[in-house]
Amino acid sequence: MGKRVVFRSAWLPYALLAPQIAVTLVFFFWPAAQALWYSFQLQDAFGLQTRFVGLENFAALFGDSHYLDSFKVTAVFSVSVAASGIAISLLLAVMADRVVRGALAYKTLLIWPYAVAPAIAGVLWAFLFAPSIGIITYALRSEGILWNWVLNDEQAMLLVVIAATWKQISYNFLFFLAGLQSIPRSLIEAAAIDGAGPARRFWTVVFPLLSPTTFFLLVVNIVYAFFDTFGVIDSTTQGGPAGATQILVYKVYYDGVKAADLGGSSAQSAVLMLIVIALTVVQFRFVERKVQY
Amino acid sequence: MRTEIRVGVLAGAVLLSGTAEAQTEIQWWHSMSGQHNEKINQIATGFNAGQKDYKVVPVFKGSYPESMTAAIAAFRAGSPPHIVQVFEVGTATMMAAKGAIKPVQQLMKEAGEPFDRKNYLAAVAGYYTDGKGDMLSMPFNSSTAVFYVNKNAFKKAGLDPNRAPKTWKEFAVIAGKLKGAGQSCVYTTGWPSWVHIENFSAWHNLPIGTRENGMAGMDTRFQVDSPQHVKHVAMLADFSKQGLFTYSGRRQEGEDRFISGECAMMTSSSSAIGKIRKGAKFDFSVNFLPYHDDIKGAPQNSIIGGATLWVMSGKKPQEYKGVAKFFSYLSRSDIQMDWHISTGYVPITNAAFEMTEKTGYYSKEPGADIAIRQLNYKAPTANSKGLRFGNFLQGREVFEEEMEAVFQGKKDAKVAMEDAARRGNDSLRKFEAANR
User: Fold this and answer.
1) Which CATH number fits domain B144-303+387-434: 3.40.50.150, 2.40.50.140, 3.40.50.300, 3.40.190.10?
2) Which residues of chain B are within 8 Å of residue A152 when distances are taken between CB atoms?
3) Can you tell me the ipTM of this complex?
4) Among A144, B72, B86, B101, which is disulfide-ready with B90 (CB 3.0 to 4.6 Å)?
């Protein structure tokens, strides 16, 4: 088929890649290495005294039962956010793909929330669901449901999952919509002629063809839920009640940025890094096998 | 038209930069938002207009922890601000950072500015004074926990609106009556740890931790698992179960519920008074915190919250001179009185308090002096002059987590407070190790 483009020069490809590599090194690898180095240290807030303490920070972490609890909380939170985020946006994308009139308006509105900062998304939902003055609380109360997430574990979790998911739906939606539009019409029409109903067409033709997109979004959403959601937590529950929404990354943020405990926070982020690396490896080795490119 | 404006702006900019060059600029990072922010700008403008050598530039840096983190990061990067506003929980961290800060007392002395620690309120100055009696930071906005009552709700329940409960025993009776009269939320609180652990302890002359609440040394241990603390938290949980206490969250969420009239009584910061005056559509009173009459020595005095101004190290003598001049300006009675009246924070000098009293403000605005009277109720003891715990942002979080577990009914008060002390001690030991 087409001609392959080959660089004749030895240094040109590297030169072209250099800016990207430099950005990655400076903004990703350098801080990650620094966090690893800090995780073996004990230092005061201002960095006036620094001592190497080996694995002491890690020992303290794993000796704390509340830290171990937050693994469970993180698992529940991340799975809920990724699963509901993907499911809802897939549904919306399939619907929006079918809309004939005013499609642009629907699409624009669905993509909009992506421009909202996580902290603002958190505040927004916290307002709607505020224990006494929130609109939704008010509506729920008239239905006889007592809504008080400041003391109810499940409701607090529900609140942060909704806020974090809402924020991510637009992003997922965009990819699903693009994926749907790249599926050849002829395939779907052929299935229809063979007598497959809409549901069957979706599950046997569309969904498998979307699997690369779905897989990509699974990885991205898990990473989002693990790393990017501390703003949502901070502006709503702050990890409460009694640690029920204390996810790992929020504790990293709280201890490091707010409480100025750099060693402890770095050790936690090293643990978090390991988890996400492991998860990504698992996803690529096992889940990716089911993906049809 | 366009070009004219542009030329005008340009000329203005040139003029401004011209004057800025001759002046020494002083960066002031703070966390005061909304009305308080406007007041800060007003103070800086007032100082700048009064002299030509220095220009104070206030910069809003976000919440208290955010400003502090920003200043720490700036220090690590080698360009800290001159002045940073740090909240009271950050005190231990700032004090331990000997090379990063310039003690205020030393600053004033070197700059030749008159300064006497005794002019400042004892309850405020004591909090920020080191073992040698040197004041390390400049008191700025201080408040304390007070008890607010919705008088209309009292009337509706057939209670005397001018008699707020003084003890927790009286409180229980009155709360029951309010509930009986159909009050959906009887009582709530802001800042649960600050009100119900820290101020509760001081008000009852109980230690929060050993070594004079950490002020005598970093080898302090929390004592929040005392029988009195356990009893108090158990009482709140019991109130919660009976529907007499509604938990609202860890920050000032409760204040909105009081202002909306949903909750009839509330304990929170005295600096909420401005917000309540503006928003509440009912008569309210400000009162002393209720106390347990079976605890000997109660009531004692309450402790402050709020923030002070810390001066960062590594600046030029000329700049420090400007900072010192600005601090003198800030301590002036008229400036303090204005700050006190418009924000609800207590005046930091005795002279400013007396000046405010003379204007008749307190008889016009009953309740405005409650905070300061409560802070001065008795001469502060080792238990009530303040606290100084390292990593206390984490310590407070632990207290709040454990209290929430009790209010949820998941944990027994005794177990929870023991866990609070144990987990808090872990973070104290870590701080001690990091600041040897």
Assistant:
1) 3.40.190.10
2) 408
3) 0.85
4) B86
